[in-house]
Amino acid sequence: ARGSPAGAKAEPPGSGVIDVGAQSERWAAFQKRHGLSGEEAARLLLDAYEYRGLVKHTGGCHCGAVRFEVWAPADLHVFNCNCSICTKKQNRHFIVPASRFKLLKGADNLKTYTFNTHRAQHTFCKICGVQSFYTPRSNPDGYGIAPHCLDDGTVQNIITEDINGKEWEKAVREHKTIRDMSKP
Question: What is the pTM of this model?
Answer without folding.
Answer: 0.72
